[in-house]
Every structure is written in structure tokens, then in C-alpha cells.
Amino acid sequence: MVVSFVAGPDGFQFRSILAAGSLLFIVGLIDDLRSIKPYQKLIAQILAASIVCVSGVILPWTPFPPINMALTILWLVGITNAVNLLDNMDGLAAGISAIAGSFLTANLLINGQIAESVAVASFVAALIGFLVYNFNPASIFMGDCGSMFLGFFLAGTSMLSITGGRLQSLPVLVVPVLVLLIPIFDTTLVAIVRRMSGRAISQGGRDHASHRLVALGLSERRAVLMLYGLAVVSGCLGLAVRWLPIDTAVASVIGLTIILSLVGIYLAQVSVYDASEVAEARRQPLVAFLIDLSYKRRVFEVLLDAVLVLMSWYVASLILFGRATLNEGWGELVHFAPLLLAVKLPVLLMMGVYRGLWRYIGLDSVLTYGKAVAASSVGIALALLLIYRFEGFSRTVLVLDAVVLFTCLTTSRFMFRLLRRVLPGGDVAFGRPESKRVLIYGAGDGGELLVRELRNNLRWGCHPIGFVDDDRLKINKVIHGLRVLGGNDDLVEICERQNVDEVLVSSTHISDGRVMEVSEECGRHGIALRRMRFHLEPISTLPDDSLIGAYASSDGGADDDVNDRWKTVPR
Q1: How far, in Å, CA of 486 to CA of 120, rounded?
Q2: Partners of 479 in the beta sheet?
Q3: Which three-class secondary structure string do you get for 71-95?
Q4: In the 8-state DSSP scheme, what is residue 138?
Q5: How remote is the C-alpha of 340 from its chain's centroid?
Q6: Helix %, strand %, coil % for the chain, to 5?
Q7: In this structure, what are the phi and psi dihedrals at residue 192, rounded to the nearest 5 degrees?
Q8: Within 10 Å of residue 247's Cβ, how many Cβ atoms?
Q9: What gap in Å lies between CA 285 and CA 22, rounded to an integer?
Q10: Upstream peptide bond of 137 is cis (omega within 30 degrees of 0)
């Protein structure tokens, strides 16, 4: 504050941001000491935002001043609460705010706003000094007084670079959103998931993006660092859009939005609420509809593919013709978009693109996408021939469009698989017991099937760490990213070295006698042993009542048939 007053801007606009932020600091301090109601804090935030609006700092996002003023108040209040909600883990709010402030400082310097950049740089320097003691493991903490001031100061100063007639273009207008994208992403995720689970958005809980990353197996420090990395990426894009062509900037922003949407959907799957709360929420008609929609995700898939179809054609044209020709034909491309969607989306539907589950995507799914893309390209070619006689269209664009669309389709579908590989321990949900480290005995077809089952089925609570196999030629080979660590003679040594909790026998070719030998050996060292049995029996050999009984105890889950295939071998 001292640096800001001495070396910062002299204008009333910046001073109003400091004054309004100080007001929220006092309100937050009272809340930390005495606890005030959420609506009382909201009133104070609206008052602070109104002070800034009166000083003339208003977002110029529309031609209508009343709408701009409403958007400004919404922006200031929204970012204030977003950073306040982000303060849920050691060093998270302070670190994200420091990163955002650094990019804001660079943006102000590029604009030539030296005094404003000095003020924001002093803000960043104070946060770095605070982070020395606030990063995990923290010895000091900020309350609402700190987090509300951080959010309001960032929201206010982010508007200084887009007011006063400087660079009023679309890329510059989205700079504040990109720089502050992580608080916005976290707040959006929490708001949607809480609403769908029948909880009040203002109700606290350990359901933020950081908590969900920890639930997936990351340490608190690594979860915070991962969010730091995302903040750096979005901040770099926020600066890059100043120089990127408008089409490239829009495509980059859409691409980042799609990636964060997929990450949000993946994180939303982590169970963080009590089962009774979710069951109660399902009885609410609107919430039940949203939950059902989120599980099926077909609407999201179609909307995603609609964006990918348009982007693919655009990128193909960009590669072939370059920017100059493409910008001149932008209106024609927009006019052509309905035909693209009308032809390609139904073909993708008929070819089975929307029948699969993303978590089980494999080579068969990739082949389906290839056939669907090829069929959609043939369909759009016939449509262009019948309607336009191919006048003004390039056949090369059709080929490039098919390649780009196939790449985008497969990449978006493999995103969940990629997230499971990037996030260690991704098969453990929040609130469940710690996952067991398991070693798989048998590096063959059964072992490969078992790894996929353990990674896709959260209910087992098992984290495979590698294989052992009797065939020593397989040692150091890799299956699904897991190494064959040794042979059966090395079993006990490997278990002790890798802190193995349990050994799972995957091969059906191992005799029962050998299994019992391994079981006795594991038992002497306190290591549990289980064996996977997979066999099919004709229905005619099963009594009618046994078949009915098998399903009578089922809860309707997708994994009940798997439970019947697993047998426990006593130690």
C-alpha cells in the first residue's frame, strides 16, 4: 500500500480500487473475528464494486453503459469470491494471485502504464514474501480479510489496461479472464457440482479442484503446483492473444476452454459427498435431470463435436490458403457452417461415435472414429457437389479437414485416459480408504485385463505397481506403463522393496498347487494373496434359483458381474 501511494498512479480510479479493497479487508477481518452472514459480505462487496464503478473504471464489453456497469459489478464481486473460495490449501490463493499479478504487471508494462505496473508489482512482491511462510507446510495463513482483498485488487487492476481507450480489441478484452482463469474455473466447478448434488453453493466443503486432485493421489504440494502450472499457461495465453491474429487467438481460447472443460468433468467424477446427500439431491426433479445429463454426457459430446467440426474445417482452410484469403472468406465460412453441422453430426451419430464410453476407449473406438470421419467427409463432398457443384471449394481442404477432425476426435476422447495416467493414484476417490499397492503375478493376457479392470473400477481401491512373471524373458518389459519387475523367485524381495500390500494372481494357467506355495510364502511375510478367476458356464448348468439369487442381491451397478468372477484364496 505504501509503495502504491508513493510510486503508483495519482489518479482517482486507482485510489478508488485501493479504498474499496481496504473496505473489504475490514469486512473480512470482522468475519474472521466474529463471523458475519454471507449476504452481509455480499452487500459489502457490491458497495465496494459500486465505488470503483463511480470512479469510472468500467468494463467496455458492450455498447450499452448500464450493461457494462452491471458486468463490472459482477466481475468485481465474482473474482473476489473466486479467490476467497480458492483459499482452501496452503499457498494456493497467494500463489495463484502472485502469478496472475505477474502477468497483469507485464500487460500494463506493454501498454506503457508504468505507474500502474509498479503498484501491481509491489502487490506481487508482497505475496511472494507471504508465500515464503504460507506455502506447504504453512506457518501463517490468510483469512477472509486477505483473500477478499487479493481478489478485489486483482479484479480491479485487471480492468485498468482496458479502460481509457487503450487497445479496445477482442483479444485484449479477454486478457483479464485468461489471467484469472484458474479462480474462475475452480468456482465454476464447485458451483455446478454443488448445485447438482443438492448443496448450497455458499456451503463450504472439501470439494474444490485442489481437494479433488489430492483425492486422486497427489500430495497437497503437487496439487498446488499443478494448479500453478495451469495458471501460468492461461496467463501466457492471455499475453499471447495481444499479438496473435484474431482467428488464431479465438481458436486458442476455445482450445483451452475445451481442455479445462474435460479436466473439470474428470475431476467432477471424484466422489466427495456423502451418499445420502446425493440420494436426496436425486429426488429433486431439476437436479436429477442435471445429474442424469452429466452421467450420460451425450449432449456435451455433441456440442464438443460441433465445435471440433467447425474448427477442423477452419484449420484445414488456414493450412491450405493462409490467413489473407481466409480472412476475406470468413463470412462465407460462417455461412457454410450450418451445412457442415447438418451433414457431419448425423453421420457421426449413425456411425456409432456416441455409443462408446470414453474411459474404455481403445483401438476399436479409434477405428470407429476413422470410419465416421471418412463417411462424414464423403457426405459433405456429395453435399457440395449437389448444392454448389464444388465451385469455390477445394478438394484438398476436404482431405485436410478429415485429418484434423480425426485427430481432434481421438485426442478429445483419449483425454480421460491421459488424465488417469498423468494423475498418479487416479483410481482412488475422496473419502475412500487408501488404495492398496498391489503386485500382479502373471504378465500375460490375464495380467493386462486385470490392470485395465483395476484402473477403470474405483471400487477395488487397488493401485497396481508392476508385474512378476515366471518367464524371465519378460523381465523389464512394460505393459500399460507397468514394468515386469522380476520372476517368481524375486517375489518376496520385490514386495518388500515396493511396499506391496497384496499380490494378485492373474494367470489361469498357474496350477492350484503353485498358487498355494506362493500363498504360504506370502503368508510368512504378511502379504495378502488373491487370485482372479475368469470362466464362462452355460446357463443350462445353473439352477434357476441361483441365477435369480445372483441378481437379487445386485444394486444395479455395472461392476456386479465382475465381483462374481473374483475369488479370494485363503492365506
Answers
A1: 57
A2: 482
A3: HHHHHHHHHHHHHHHHCCCCCHHHH
A4: P
A5: 29
A6: 70, 5, 25
A7: -65, -45
A8: 16
A9: 43
A10: yes
Q: For all residues of the chain together, what is the average pLDDT?
A: 75
Q: Which class in CATH covers the domain with range 433-567?
A: alpha beta
Predicted local distance difference test score (pLDDT) of residue 406:
92
Please identify which residue in the block is written with the cell numbers 487492476.
Answer: 157
Asked if pLDDT for residue 167 goes beyond 60, the answer is no
pLDDT tens digits, one per residue of 490-526: 777 888 787 888 888 876 666 677 777 777 777 777 7
Give me 48's grid cell: 465496494
Question: Radius of gyration over alpha carbons of the chain, in Å?
Answer: 28
Quick one: which of 75, 101, 224, 83 has its CA closest to 148? 83
Cβ contact 333:312 at 8 Å: no
The three grid cell numbers given for residue 428, joined into one nine-digit string: 482412488
Structure confidence by residue, pLDDT tens digits, 430-455: 334 456 788 888 877 777 778 877 77
Closest listed residue to residue 164, CA positions, set 62, 57, 72? 57
Determine the angle formed by the axes of helices 395-413 and 363-388, rounding to 10 degrees.
150
* Model confidence band, residue 153 (pLDDT cutoffs 50, 70, 90): very high
Lowest average pLDDT, out of 195-204, 435-444, 561-570, goes to 561-570
Q: What is the DSSP string of 206-274?
A: S-SHHHHHHHTT--HHHHHHHHHHHHHHHHHHHHHTTTS-HHHHHHHHHHHHHHHHHHHHHHHTS--S-
Neighbouring C-beta atoms of residue 256, cutoff 10 Å = 16
406 within 8 A of 247, measured Cβ to Cβ = no
Rounded Cα distance, 163 and 550, in Å: 68
Neighbouring CB atoms inside 10 A of 544's CB total: 8
d(CA 406, CA 388) in angstroms, rounded, equals 25
Q: Which residue has the cell 453441422?
A: 341
Burial of 196 per CB tally in 10 Å (0-12, 13-18, 19+): buried
Three-state SS for 499?
A: coil
Please report, for the chain, the start and end positions of each structural domain, with discontinuous segments joined by +: 2-296, 298-421, 433-567
Query: In which order are the strands placed within the sheet that holds 478-479?
Result: 478-479, 482-486, 462-468, 436-441, 502-505, 528-532, 566-567
Cβ neighbours of 384 (radius 10 Å)? 19
Q: How far apart are CA 563 and CA 554, in angstroms?
A: 10
Distance from C-alpha of 212 to C-alpha of 267, rounded to nearest angstrom: 6
| Residue in the structure block whose three cell numbers are 454443488 | 194
Sort strands 462-468 and 478-479 into parallel, antiparallel or unpaired.
Answer: unpaired
Half-sphere exposure of 164 (CA within 13 A, CB side): 14
Q: Are 90 and 137 in contact (CB under 8 A)?
A: yes
The angle formed by the CA atoms of residues 31, 93 and 12, to the nearest 5 degrees, is: 75
Q: Are strands 528-532 and 566-567 parallel, antiparallel or unpaired?
A: antiparallel
Which amino acid is residue 198, in one-letter code? G
Global pTM value: 0.60
